[in-house]
Amino acid sequence: MNKTILLFTMLLFGVFLHSQVTFVSETVINDQQIKIVLNSPELSQTELHNSPEVTLYVVLPKDYHTSQKKYPVVYYLHGFSSMAAEIKNYANQFNNSFTAEKSFIVVGVDGRNKYYGSFFVNSPVSGNYEDWLTRDAVGYIESRFRTLNKPESRGLLGLSMGGFGVLHNSLAHPDIFKVAYAVAPGVFAPESGLQEAMISWDNNLSFKRAYGSAFAGNYIVFPVFNSSSEDNELIKKWEGGFGGWEKRVDSYLKKNVKLQALAIEWGASDGYKWIPSGSEWLAGYLTSKGVSVQIEKTTLGHDMYPQRMNSTIIPFFMKYLQFQ
Q: Which residues of 237-276 are buried (b: 16+ CB within 10 A; e: fewer)?
């Protein structure tokens, strides 16, 4: 381990020790699956008054209990209204794909709040879920399990809201996560993305409240596109959520640390039509800026995990994560 990695590991562990997160419970589901509940008062001290309890759902490799080696970790970010435990649906696919030389721990990270989705970002209204992921979740997992505590051995995987969380947090924190795979991510193409998305969210009040609280600091007033100065200001904030990628990419390019591997996947049959167009635009924009992206265009719909986990997603992490 070089000095830079050692220093970062010590810093991350030190930050976790000084966070407010405390242990609540640990439930062993079976030899490979563990549900952990932590208490984070910080997440409840917001306008939404979220529950302070957050969950980590851990899927261990089959050989975890019979070996002494340390493992990479892939942090799974769920979609809107879902939960960390949904990763258990793919536990067998992960373990059946592992080899004696290469296997990793998968951790479902809780991103639910009062309105069922935090988008894994920091918000004074909906809670600092970016800090929860990058500081508390990673810190706890690395203090509890035998893990390779370096960015080359940490990955992010997520769908939809979670796919957005993967892109946002990997570009913001390549010093923590170096391998990232975003599936059908919430991404706006410039100009038309928000208006198209608002149509698809028309009957989903919880989503609009969650989105507004995360990105605009307001879960009551939504854009109406009436050209008023107040509405135009609100639109800018809403566009800066699933949009605003130029600023994120510019900030990423100024960092000394870069991603090892980034993949963006979308399906032409996605019911949210703005997602394929937004994903394709972002993949092209990243490429134009010299950021290497593995582009996976399919004919599938929004939830592609069952069809793509074995063929593409797991092999991606097996290829790019750093193992012991």
A: ebbbbbbbbeebbeebeeeeeebbbbbbbbbeebebebbb
Tally of residues, the chain? 324
> To the nearest whole percent, how much of the chain has pLDDT over 70?
94
We report the CATH number of the domain holding residue 74 as 3.40.50.1820
Residues 24/54, Cβ–Cβ less than 8 Å: no
- pLDDT at position 19 is 67
Number of domains in the chain: 1
pLDDT digits (tens, 9 = 90+) for 36-63: 999 999 999 999 999 999 999 999 999 9
Q: Are 273 and 192 in contact (CB under 8 A)?
A: no
Range of the domain at 271: 3-320
DSSP assignment of 259-306: -SEEEEEEETT-SSTHHHHHHHHHHHHHHHTT---EEEEES--S--HH
Alpha helices, H only, the chain:
3-17, 41-44, 91-97, 129-131, 138-144, 161-172, 193-200, 205-215, 229-242, 245-253, 274-288, 305-308, 314-320
Nearest to 61 by CA among 33, 20, 21, 80: 33
What is the percent of the chain where pLDDT is above 90? Answer: 92
> Which residue in 82, 141, 76, 85 sits closest to 112, CA to CA?
82
Q: What is the pLDDT of residues 262-305, one digit of tens each?
A: 999 999 999 999 999 999 999 999 999 999 999 999 999 999 88
Beta bridge partners of 157: 76, 181
Distance CA 196, CA 239 (A): 12
Q: Give DSSP secondary structure letters for 184-227.
A: S---PPTTTHHHHHHHHTTT-HHHHHHHHHHHTS-SS-------
